[in-house]
Write a structure and sequence with these properties.
The protein is of the alpha/beta class and 464 residues long. The protein contains 15 helices and 12 strands.
C-alpha cells in the first residue's frame, strides 16, 4: 500500500532500537527525540507505531511537516489532531488554546506528544515554535516532541541558530537500510503477514535478487515484490529472479544491477534506439542521473552523476518593505569613472556646435598664450577632453593660443609656407605626472601651470 500499516511492522535492529529509545524518552520526559533516515527506511511507520503505543497515556498529535508553513497552520494542525476546534480562530487565540490544553493535560498527569513526520521540510522558525512549547511552566514536562526526517534535518539542527533546540535532544535514532540477513527475514515476514508462504510464491534465488536490486530499502522491497507477483499472476507460476529484474525495470526505469539476470525478451524499438544512441558515442556507457537522497544505489555497470536536490530556504524570515515615494533606481552618478577622449581638430570651428566650458584660470592662461601666437594659417592639433560630472559628454572649443581649462592642455604650433599641411612641428603640452621615457626628443613636455610662461618664451626663442 502507498502508506505504511503498523500490522506489517518488522522489528529490524535499527528501527526497533529507535522505537524503544523514543518511547522511553516520552514516558520519562527526557526531552526532544530525533529520528533520521533516508527515504523508504521506515520513519513514518515508526511514528505510527509510536503513536499506537503511547496514545493510552498521552494526547498524540501526528503532523506532517510538508503541509505546515505558517504558525497559524501549526497551531491548527495540533488542535485538529487532538480533537479541539480550530476553524475561524485567529493565531493568538489558537496558541492560547494549545497552551491551555497542555496545562490541563499536565494537571491530570498526562501530556501532549507532538510527532512531526517530514520535519526537514518544516521552516526553522516553526521548529523553534515547537521548542517554545516545552518551556510552558507545568509541574512536570508535559510537551514531548519527536522530529523525524532525512539527514537534512540533522544538518538543520546543527546550525548555530538552532542550538537551543539541539541542546534539548535526548534521543537520536538513525535508521538505515536492511542488511542481507534482515532483508531475507523481512521478505518472509511480509509474505506471512499477507497469509502466504514464501517458498510457494517465489523460486530459489529470488530473495538474493531482491536484495541486489533494492540494497535493503524496505519501500523498494515492497514495490519490487508486489510488481513481480503481478507479472506472474496470469501465468499461475512462481516468481523467478528474472521476474524480479523485470519488475525492477518496470517500476524504476533503470538498468538491472549486476548479478541479476533479466528475463529473455525480444528487442524492442526502445532498445534499438538506445543501442544506436550508444554507438554514436563510440560505445561509451551513458551515466544515470539520480535525484535526491536515498535513491537506488549506484551499480558497477554504469557510472552515476549525483545531482543534489535543491535546498529549501532555511534562514530567518525576511520582510521586504518598499517606499513608493522613492525610486530605488534614481541614483546620482557623481562618482562614475571619467573618460578622456582625444580629438584631432582642423580649426576653431570643429567644436563650435558643442557646449563650451571655461574657467578663470583657462581665460588667464589663454590671454598669456595669445600674446605669443600669430594667426597665420590652419593647424591640426591633438587635444585631450575630460568629461565632467555634470555633463557626461561636454566639449571645449579649442582656439589658437588657449589652454584646455579642464585638464591643463596647452596648444602651440605654427605652420607656414610649404609646410602648411605638415604637423611635424606640432607641440602638445599635457599636465601629466609621469616621466617621459625618451628624454632626448620628448613629444610631450611635463610642466606645471606656473611654468607655462617661461616654457612658451623658450619655445618662441627656439623657433626664431
Amino acid at each position: 500500500m502507498a502508506s505504511p500499516r503498523t500490522q506489517f511492522y518488522f522489528a529490524a535492529t535499527e528501527i526497533d532500537g529507535a522505537l524503544r529509545g523514543v518511547e522511553r524518552c516520552i514516558r520519562r520526559a527526557e526531552g526532544v527525540s530525533l529520528v533520521v533516515g533516508p527515504p523508504g527506511t521506515g520513519k513514518s511507520l515508526l511514528l505510527l507505531k509510536l503513536a499506537e503505543q503511547v496514545r493510552d497515556d498521552f494526547d498524540v498529535a501526528l503532523l506532517t511537516g510538508a503541509s505546515i508553513c505558517t504558525r497559524r497552520a501549526l497551531w491548527q494542525s495540533i488542535l485538529g489532531a487532538i480533537g479541539e476546534p480550530y476553524r475561524g480562530i485567529d493565531e493568538a487565540d489558537l496558541r492560547i488554546a494549545v497552551v491551555e490544553r497542555i496545562r490541563g493535560l499536565a494537571a491530570s498527569g498526562s501530556g501532549l506528544a507532538i510527532l512531526v513526520d517530514e520535519a526537514h521540510t518544516l521552516p526553522t522558525r516553526l521548529i523553534d515554535e515547537l521548542r517554545l512549547l516545552t518551556n510552558i511552566p507545568t509541574p512536570m514536562p508535559a510537551v514531548h516532541i519527536v522530529l523525524a526526517g532525512t539527514p537534512r534535518l540533522d544538518e538543520m539542527l546543527g546550525h548555530p541558530r538552532m542550538a537551543s533546540l539541539a541542546q534539548r535532544i535526548a534521543v537520536r535514532g538513525y535508521l538505515d537500510t536492511l542488511d542481507h540477513a534482515e532483508t531475507l527475514a523481512y521478505l518472509r515476514s511480509q509474505v506471512a503477514a499477507a497469509g502466504l508462504t514464501w517458498d510457494k510464491l517465489f523460486e530459489a534465488g529470488c530473495d538474493d535478487a531482491v536484495y541486489r536490486v533494492t540494497e535493503g530499502v524496505p519501500r523498494l522491497i515492497n514495490q519490487v515484490c508486489d510488481q513481480a507477483t503481478v507479472l506472474v499472476a496470469e501465468s499461475n507460476r512462481r516468481v523467478t529472479p528474472g521476474d524480479i529484474a523485470a519488475a525492477w525495470r518496470e517500476i524504476q526505469r533503470l538498468p538491472t544491477p549486476a548479478g541479476v539476470e533479466p528475463m529473455a525478451a525480444p528487442v524492442t524499438t526502445d532498445d534499438e534506439i538506445g543501442a544506436s544512441f550508444t554507438d554514436e558515442f563510440d560505445g561509451e556507457e551513458l551515466g544515470v542521473i539520480e535525484f535526491g537522497a536515498g535513491d537506488p544505489p549506484v551499480t558497477e555497470s554504469r557510472p552515476t552523476v549525483e545531482v543534489a536536490a535543491a535546498e529549501l530556504w532555511s534562514g530567518p524570515d525576511v520582510e521586504l518593505v518598499f517606499d513608493p515615494s522613492a525610486d530605488p533606481f534614481d541614483e546620482l552618478f557623481a562618482d562614475e569613472e571619467r573618460v578622456v577622449e582625444r580629438f584631432v581638430m582642423s580649426g576653431p570651428d570643429t567644436f563650435r556646435d558643442r557646449r563650451h566650458v571655461t574657467s578663470r584660470e583657462g581665460q588667464a592662461l589663454g590671454r598669456t598664450l595669445a600674446s605669443f601666437g600669430r594667426d597665420d594659417g590652419p593647424r591640426q592639433v591633438e587635444r585631450a577632453h575630460e568629461a565632467s560630472a555634470t555633463d557626461p559628454q561636454p566639449a571645449v572649443e579649442a582656439k589658437r593660443g588657449e589652454a584646455d581649462p579642464l585638464v591643463g592642455v596647452a596648444i602651440a604650433s605654427d605652420t607656414t609656407g610649404d609646410n602648411a599641411e605638415d604637423d611635424s612641428d606640432m607641440v602638445v603640452i599635457e599636465e601629466d605626472l609621469h616621466d617621459v621615457a625618451d628624454e632626448a626628443s620628448p613629444p610631450v613636455f611635463t610642466v606645471r601651470p606656473s611654468d607655462y610662461r617661461s616654457l612658451f618664451t623658450r619655445l618662441r626663442r627656439g623657433r626664431r
